[in-house]
Write a sequence for this structure.
């Protein structure tokens, strides 16, 4: 664009020298000077904020300040390299995440769901994980940047409504053994994680090995999710020998609908997740689970869950082996497109 010489000629004599003086004076004035220019701490657009990091600030505090929830710190961390979080550097705070499915040109996000049952100092069953091994696994998640999500976030992801952390994983514990409260809970809390517990009603509080309603209430207060695993943990996919079709359907409704009603009443909640006993289901069972008001249901079929997975056929990996290499292999959070 051409400069209008006539406008330059209208400037008073000595104006360029005055401008240079003001720039130097204002820019160099320090704390003892009469004037100083403070640098802006934040720049905002409709989609993101650039914030200059101050001493004592971290992702949680920035998420609380700008996004309203410290739990959304993952949005800040995922948007910035690790070395960004140094004093006086600018940090990106995304206000909008458009890629709700975690899709890239190379593949798409998939959420692993880990399935545990019980815990003890020493174990004699593959369904039991030694306390020491469990802590190693949870520490591995923490040290490698995994973030644990609950069923609500999972349901929103599968409905393509909200994005979740890039390295999201869900932890579930089946059956309602008391070791979930006495062993798993302290370890999870130590590393800042929660889990989803699936209980079947007939087992709650029946022995010293079973979790109690009061313990479940405490876990719920601590951010854990309590889901249904039916009333009696019977196979819902098969009609029993002594059942006609009417009796079979009545059993299904009791196991699915009534278990939800009892948990809702005991814990003051709207139970949103169901775990099929033995992971077995068919079209009828899945349909009844949906009709009962659950938002999501899980199997024990292995694999991760992309955003387009069926929310009533969520896959889970049962953690039965104790070596860390096998455990790490269950934590794939990204599925690459097949090579042509």
């Amino acid at each position: 664009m051409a400069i209008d010489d006539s406008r330059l000629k209208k400037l008073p004599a000595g104006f360029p020298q005055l401008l240079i003086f003001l720039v130097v004076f204002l820019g160099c004035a320090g704390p003892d000077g009469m004037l100083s220019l403070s640098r802006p701490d934040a720049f905002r657009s409709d989609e993101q904020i650039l914030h200059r990091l101050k001493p004592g600030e971290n992702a949680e505090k920035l998420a609380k300040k700008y996004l309203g929830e410290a739990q959304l710190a993952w949005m800040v961390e995922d948007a910035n390299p690790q070395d960004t979080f140094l004093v006086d550097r600018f940090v990106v705070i995304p206000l909008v995440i458009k890629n709700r499915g975690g899709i890239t040109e190379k593949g798409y996000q998939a959420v692993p769901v880990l399935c545990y049952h019980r815990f003890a100092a020493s174990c004699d069953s593959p369904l039991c994980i030694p306390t020491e091994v469990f802590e190693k696994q949870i520490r591995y998640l923490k040290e490698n940047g995994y973030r644990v999500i609950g069923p609500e976030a999972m349901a929103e992801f599968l409905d393509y409504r909200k994005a979740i952390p890039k390295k999201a994983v869900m932890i579930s514990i089946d059956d309602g053994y008391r070791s979930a409260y006495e062993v798993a809970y302290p370890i999870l809390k130590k590393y800042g994680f929660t889990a989803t517990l699936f209980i079947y009603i007939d087992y709650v509080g029946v022995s010293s090995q079973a979790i109690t309603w009061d313990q479940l209430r405490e876990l719920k207060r601590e951010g854990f999710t309590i889901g249904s695993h039916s009333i009696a943990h019977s196979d819902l996919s098969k009609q029993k020998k002594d059942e006609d079709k009417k009796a079979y359907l009545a059993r299904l409704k009791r196991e699915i609908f009534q278990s939800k009603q009892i948990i809702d009443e005991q814990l003051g909640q709207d139970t949103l997740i169901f775990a099929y006993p033995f992971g077995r289901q068919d079209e009828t069972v899945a349909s009844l689970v949906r009709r009962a008001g659950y938002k999501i249901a899980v199997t024990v079929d292995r694999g991760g869950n992309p955003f387009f997975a069926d929310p009533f056929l969520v896959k889970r990996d049962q953690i039965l082996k104790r070596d860390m290499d096998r455990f790490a292999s269950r934590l794939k959070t990204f599925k690459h497109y097949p090579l042509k």
Q: What stands out?
A: The longest helix spans residues 245-267. The two ends are 50 Å apart (CA to CA). Confidence is low (pLDDT under 50) at residues 1-12, 15-37. The longest strand covers residues 168-175.
